[in-house]
Amino acid sequence: MAQFYGNEQIQHTLHQMLLRDRAPHGFLFYGETGLGKKTLAKQFLAELLCTGTEKPCGSCKSCKMLADGVHPDVRFVEHSGKRNGFSVDTVREVCVDLASPPNEGNAKCYVFGDCDAMDTRTQNLLLKAVEEPPAYGYFIFTATSPASLLPTVRSRIVSLAVSPVTEQECRAALAERGFSPEDAAEAVAAFHGNIGQCLNFLENMPIREAVGLTKTAINSIINKNEYALLQTVSVLGKERERTFLFLNLFDRCIRDAIVWKHDPCAAGIGCDAAGSKKLAERLSDSAGQAMHRAVDSTYGAMEANVNLPLALAAFCADCMDA
Ligand SMILES: [Zn+2]
Q1: How far apart are CA 266 and CA 244, in angstroms?
Q2: Which of 32, 85, 181, 288 is the most exposed place for a label (fewest CB within 10 A)?
């Protein structure tokens, strides 16, 4: 089973709760995409369900079934209905299923991953089950922000923030998965201590391309070359996913440049440390803020379904005017 790195405090807390038989029946693990929130959920469940002595032992029937993804009492609920949400039918089905006791041990667990788009109706439908689950019932939610869940749901569960690991831990995790030190270094330079995003970078060409585009865009801004910037973003065409990714990466680089102007030793979060450092030398605070606003208004335009190339042209003009 994939190991969960870092976040010793959370791991310790969960372990202590289980040791004392005081584990809450509902959790929200939140933090940015790629931090291993679902891996953490799986690790918690392994310890909860293990029948060995050193929990999780990794060798009992429960541990093996969980590792193989076939544990009858653990369900990673799949998204259904609207994009990245959970349909009413799915939630009803979970509530019905919860009423029957576990097959194996004395716990039955539902993991609702990536709940950022879980709507109010389905959350309300689930509220009763989360509020008063049977003694064997457990719910784990994961999301990028705690605000993804309704306050009523959150008040019934324990919310824990998951953080990125150190870059060293991240390199170790990548090495364990068979990546060369060079590849690992390249990924960590772009995505720091976010293991999931580093893996994504190494395994998905589009992510690599988006990082490349971001570096070119930052360079165009350093050189005040609007034409080059327009050409760079034109590569995105009408692809919304890639554009979102690009804007997110770009925004992080601008954030780094603004922070480094004031504190060159601060930790970076962007994918282009060299570019952001250069930019920091010539970027005013107001120009940085203006670029950040340009990103925000492009997100807004995308949500309003404005023609993407037009929105990106406006983005370039705004960045250059800054
Ligand atoms: Zn076990």
Answers
A1: 26
A2: 181
Q: Which residues, in sequence order, are CB contacts of 230 under 8 Å at separation 6+?
A: 313, 316
* Ligand 1 center to 5 CA (angstroms): 20
Which residue(s) pair with 27 in the sheet? Answer: 140, 158
CA of 63 to the centre of ligand 1 (A): 4
Tens digits of residue pLDDT in 87-106: 999 999 999 999 999 999 89
**Centre of ligand 1 from the C-alpha of residue 107, in Å:** 14
How many Å lie between the centroid of ligand 1 and the Cα of residue 48? 9
E strand spans, 91-207: 108-112, 137-143, 158-161
| CATH architecture of residue range(s) 205-321 | Up-down Bundle (1.20)
- 288 CA distance to ligand 1 centroid (A)? 52
Q: Which residue has the tokens 């060079």?
A: 182
Q: Domain boundaries in the chain?
A: 8-161, 205-321
The CATH architecture assigned to 8-161 reads: 3-Layer(aba) Sandwich (3.40)
| Residue 47 · residue 14 · CB < 8 Å | yes
Q: What is the pLDDT of residues 74-90, one digit of tens each?
A: 999 999 988 889 999 99
Ligand 1 centroid–CA 30 distance in Å is 26
